[in-house]
Amino acid sequence: MLDFVKNNQYLVGLLVAAIGIIPPLLTFAISIYNTSQSRKEELSNRQYTQYHQLIGDLASNAKGALDSQTAIVYELRFYRKYRHATIRILNNLKNTWGAHREQVLHHF
After folding, report:
1. For the whole model, what pTM was predicted?
2. Secondary structure of the chain: what % helix, strand, coil (to 5)?
3. pLDDT band at 54 (very low <50, low <70, confident <90, very high)
4. Which residue among 27, 47, 64, 70 is buried most deeply as judged by most CB within 10 Å?
Protein backbone atom coordinates (compact mmCIF):
# COMPACT_ATOMS: atom_id res chain seq x y z
CA MET A 1 0.00 0.00 0.00
CA LEU A 2 2.79 2.38 0.93
CA ASP A 3 4.57 1.53 -2.30
CA PHE A 4 1.45 2.37 -4.27
CA VAL A 5 1.26 5.81 -2.59
CA LYS A 6 4.96 6.47 -3.24
CA ASN A 7 4.71 5.36 -6.88
CA ASN A 8 1.48 7.28 -7.58
CA GLN A 9 1.89 10.49 -5.59
CA TYR A 10 0.33 12.57 -8.37
CA LEU A 11 -2.75 10.33 -8.50
CA VAL A 12 -3.12 10.32 -4.72
CA GLY A 13 -2.81 14.13 -4.71
CA LEU A 14 -5.58 14.41 -7.30
CA LEU A 15 -7.76 12.05 -5.28
CA VAL A 16 -7.28 14.06 -2.11
CA ALA A 17 -8.03 17.31 -3.98
CA ALA A 18 -11.18 15.80 -5.48
CA ILE A 19 -12.35 14.65 -2.07
CA GLY A 20 -11.87 18.22 -0.84
CA ILE A 21 -13.67 19.84 -3.79
CA ILE A 22 -16.61 17.54 -4.52
CA PRO A 23 -18.58 17.92 -1.24
CA PRO A 24 -18.65 21.74 -1.35
CA LEU A 25 -19.67 21.66 -5.02
CA LEU A 26 -22.39 19.16 -4.24
CA THR A 27 -23.61 21.32 -1.34
CA PHE A 28 -23.63 24.37 -3.61
CA ALA A 29 -25.62 22.54 -6.29
CA ILE A 30 -28.19 21.35 -3.75
CA SER A 31 -28.48 24.89 -2.38
CA ILE A 32 -29.14 26.30 -5.85
CA TYR A 33 -31.76 23.62 -6.52
CA ASN A 34 -33.54 24.27 -3.21
CA THR A 35 -33.53 28.03 -3.81
CA SER A 36 -34.98 27.64 -7.30
CA GLN A 37 -37.69 25.28 -6.03
CA SER A 38 -38.55 27.69 -3.22
CA ARG A 39 -38.82 30.63 -5.64
CA LYS A 40 -40.92 28.55 -8.02
CA GLU A 41 -43.33 27.65 -5.21
CA GLU A 42 -43.46 31.26 -4.01
CA LEU A 43 -44.28 32.46 -7.53
CA SER A 44 -46.99 29.83 -7.87
CA ASN A 45 -48.54 30.87 -4.56
CA ARG A 46 -48.42 34.54 -5.54
CA GLN A 47 -50.09 33.81 -8.90
CA TYR A 48 -52.77 31.75 -7.14
CA THR A 49 -53.50 34.63 -4.76
CA GLN A 50 -53.55 37.22 -7.55
CA TYR A 51 -55.81 35.08 -9.72
CA HIS A 52 -58.34 34.59 -6.95
CA GLN A 53 -58.21 38.30 -6.13
CA LEU A 54 -59.04 39.11 -9.76
CA ILE A 55 -61.89 36.58 -9.85
CA GLY A 56 -63.23 37.95 -6.57
CA ASP A 57 -63.06 41.51 -7.87
CA LEU A 58 -64.80 40.50 -11.09
CA ALA A 59 -67.59 38.63 -9.33
CA SER A 60 -68.14 41.33 -6.69
CA ASN A 61 -68.07 44.00 -9.38
CA ALA A 62 -70.76 42.22 -11.41
CA LYS A 63 -72.96 45.31 -11.47
CA GLY A 64 -70.06 47.75 -11.53
CA ALA A 65 -68.09 49.66 -14.07
CA LEU A 66 -67.58 48.05 -17.44
CA ASP A 67 -64.02 49.41 -17.60
CA SER A 68 -63.04 47.54 -14.45
CA GLN A 69 -64.59 44.34 -15.70
CA THR A 70 -62.82 44.66 -19.05
CA ALA A 71 -59.46 45.26 -17.37
CA ILE A 72 -59.91 42.25 -15.09
CA VAL A 73 -60.90 39.95 -17.97
CA TYR A 74 -57.89 41.22 -19.92
CA GLU A 75 -55.58 40.37 -17.00
CA LEU A 76 -57.10 36.90 -16.62
CA ARG A 77 -55.64 35.89 -19.98
CA PHE A 78 -52.19 35.80 -18.37
CA TYR A 79 -53.27 32.97 -16.05
CA ARG A 80 -53.25 30.11 -18.56
CA LYS A 81 -52.87 27.57 -15.78
CA TYR A 82 -56.43 28.37 -14.68
CA ARG A 83 -57.85 28.63 -18.20
CA HIS A 84 -60.57 25.99 -17.83
CA ALA A 85 -61.83 27.41 -14.54
CA THR A 86 -61.72 30.94 -15.97
CA ILE A 87 -63.83 29.96 -18.99
CA ARG A 88 -66.41 28.28 -16.74
CA ILE A 89 -66.52 31.26 -14.35
CA LEU A 90 -66.83 33.79 -17.17
CA ASN A 91 -69.66 31.80 -18.78
CA ASN A 92 -71.50 31.71 -15.44
CA LEU A 93 -70.95 35.44 -14.94
CA LYS A 94 -72.09 36.11 -18.51
CA ASN A 95 -75.35 34.29 -17.77
CA THR A 96 -75.73 36.19 -14.49
CA TRP A 97 -75.03 39.52 -16.14
CA GLY A 98 -77.43 38.67 -18.95
CA ALA A 99 -80.18 37.81 -16.46
CA HIS A 100 -79.53 41.04 -14.59
CA ARG A 101 -79.71 42.99 -17.85
CA GLU A 102 -83.08 41.41 -18.64
CA GLN A 103 -84.39 42.37 -15.19
CA VAL A 104 -83.23 45.97 -15.63
CA LEU A 105 -84.78 46.20 -19.09
CA HIS A 106 -88.03 44.67 -17.83
CA HIS A 107 -88.45 47.47 -15.27
CA PHE A 108 -88.36 50.09 -18.03
Report:
1. 0.66
2. 90, 0, 10
3. very high
4. 47
